[in-house]
Structures are given as C-alpha cells and as structure tokens.
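Dear support,

I submitted the protein below through the web form. The confirmation email said the job was done, but the results page showed an empty box. After a refresh the structure appeared. I'm attaching both so you can tell me whether what I see now is the final result or a partial one.
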Amino acid sequence: MSKLTKNQKLALSKIEAGRTYTLAEAANLVKEMTYTKFDASLDIDVRLGVDPRKANQMVRGVVTLPHGTGKQVRVLVLCNPDAEAAAKAAGADYVGLDEYIEKIKGGWTDVDVIITQPAIMGKIGALGRVLGPRGLMPNPKSGTVTNDVAKAVEEVKKGKIDFKVDKNGIVHSSIGKVSFSPEQMVDNAREFVNTLIKLKPATAKGTYIKSIYLSSTMSPGVKIDSKSIDA
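What the results page shows now:
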C-alpha cells in the first residue's frame, strides 16, 4: 500500500471521523482540502438502495447542471447534410457522417459526447464495440438521439450530463470544478441529487438514498447528510 503524501495527510486531517456534513459544509471543505495545481473536478458519489441487476431498478437519466460542468465539452454530431448547418451554429465541434464513422472505426474517439438522428442509428450500430466501452454510444434516453440535433448540442454545451447507476448501486459523476464558488457547487449537487430522487424506481424498497459523498479529483470524500440537500 502506498504511503500518503503530505497533502493527502493534511486533507484527511480536516475531516472529522464519523461525522456527516451539510452540503454547504462539504462544498467548503472540498475546496479547502484540494491541493492540486490544476482545476480539479468536483465529484459526487451517491449509493442507492436499488438492485441494478433488475431491469426495473435500473436508474439512468440526464440532468442540466445550473452552473454547467466547468469544462469544454467536445461534441460530435453525426447527421444528414440538411442538419449540418444548424449543428455547427449550435456549437458542435465536429459535424459530418460517413467520414467520422470511418474515423471511429479506426479508433478515433477524441470527443466527449456524440449526438445523432434516429435515421442514422442504423449506420452507428456497428460502432458499438468502439463507443460502448467509452460511454459514447448515442442513446434516446440521454437525449443524444434526436431529430433536433441543434437543441441537443446547446443543452450539452450548457451543462447537460447523463448518468447511470453502476453494478454496485452507485451513481458517480463529475458535477463541476473546484474553482466554482461553494454556492455553485451546492446548486449543482442539489440539482443532481434531486434528479436522482425523481427517478426512484417504484420497485425500490427501503432507504433509497443510502449515502452521498462529495470530493475532488484527488481529495478524500466528505460524507453528506442527505437531509441537508433541500435545506
């Protein structure tokens, strides 16, 4: 097991063992104990009381963060020629079809989000082996398969993200940057958790939100009192 660095020890010393913090306290604490030289991501981990192995307890959705993600999202739009101009005007970084399909087949995946039209999905299906493992496969549920590609691009650029519970029942996502103000961090975290609550499966029994942790890219997690989310 590797030894803790001086900064890691200092960060851990700021967390009281066994204590849960309010969302506002956690936001301030994460800022205080982040020592990276780069602008670290603000991450949230929510453990849900669901069994992801059951199709009727799979939690997946999208949320538009009030203050965005803090990073430049590279968007590729695969569409018919008649939609290319609108996609470019909306801010898409790459727009086209066959030439990009060939590039992806060759291993190119230097984008964060791929948006396409329903009529194009037949061509994209063959790219599943490349895009699937990287979480880039367009999906109607995440709003990345739509006839209104321009609107989808605008939403992604403004801070729309999609998420999915993993096999351990945990939803993990980056919801901003540590350079955000504590208030912005709180707003984004609150929007994210409240969206999860709205997506609670009818078949999920018992406690739904089991735990919430806020952290930065290289900081320890700060446990949040779920009752403080709406406080």
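Response: this is the final, complete result; the empty box was a page-load delay. The chain has a mean pLDDT of 92.
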